[in-house]
């Protein structure tokens, strides 16, 4: 039982477009998203570590690189559909878990199955590495939306995506990495002109107490 199917799956991830069904100036695929999330998570873990957190770096990279691999089985379902009801979300998760479990049993060599059960499982848990993954995933999603907003894409979904990203960051507002995003990254974003800038600026100020609209002195 070789790793052929797993490696081929990486090619399939290049063909799965994110935010399907919406007009976009710059398409993004799941494979590129996973690489970007790994880069963002790496930096966020640096921030947390410099602020006293103990980081399991293997876990950071495994979670980030593999967090969307299972989308090769069901694709990237539109967020409004995926989260339409708790029941539907649970059903989709069950289908994904079942297909992932079967894939590991049939396509991953036995001596590596424990490792890939860990890597392909739900990475967004209550560990600091899981929280870093949650933040990194939303940061990349926000940048995908921001890329469309600064081109004045008329699709309202990108405002909604950016807004949901801010709301997700607010859930981790006490973490050092989110404080850094609020003080050093969001001010640079809001220094540019883009669709619904005022609305999103006000939302950021209401959700993230460390966001003042001005970059902190270093």
Automatic annotation (TrEMBL):
A Pfam family this chain is assigned to: YfbR-like
Q: Residues of the signal sequence?
A: none
InterPro entries the UniProt entry points to: HD/PDEase_dom (IPR003607)
Coiled-coil region list: none
- Matches recorded under SUPFAM superfamilies: HD-domain/PDEase-like
Any one GO MF term held by the record is:
hydrolase activity
Q: Which UniProt keywords apply?
A: Hydrolase
Q: What is this protein called?
A: HD superfamily hydrolase
